[in-house]
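Forgive a beginner's question, but would it be possible to get any protein sequence you like and the tokens describing how it folds?
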Amino acid sequence: MCQLLWVEGMVVAMGGVYLLMKYRHYSLFFSQTYILLPAIFTLCSAAFLVLTGFLGTWLSLRDSRCLQGLFVYLLVVIFFLESTASALALVHSRKLDSETAPLSKVFQNYTGSSQDINSRAVDATQQELHCCGVSNYTDWLDTSWFNQTGGKLVPRSCCNATFHSCTGSVEQPWQLYPQ
């Protein structure tokens, strides 16, 4: 069981690191630090899981009822930490979706003109963050600008810099930034 706790701790830690990487880009748009809260809880839970696994392994060599009771208590604490982290991740992912909705409106008003300050902001953001759209390039498929291009192109700011011949064609999505 203790080795299972180690494995579970490593899996939860990978989930926490994934959350940190995902929220890292969103933190540029939001000043609140609550976005990182689920990731921090997840990483704390992972560390607690691994430590409890080591404690359980050490306790298996001992014959102390008091220490074994402590081990069961730590398992209950882990359960509550994991439940809290899961609930926070769910609540904050919904909150994040509702707060990124205004970004979609900026993309809807994109004109592609270098004279339009909003269009320049979209292009600069996509180039800086190495992204395309709010979620991915498919966000552009519902915009009026995409329809004006004949339904074939996304902005060139979506092009991955490693592909010098990229034109923004949705027929070659591998040349676009994936997120």
Observations:
- DSSP finds five helices and no strands in the chain.
- The chain has a mean pLDDT of 80.
- The first helix runs from residue 2 to 26.
- Residues 49 and 121 are 44 Å apart (CA to CA).
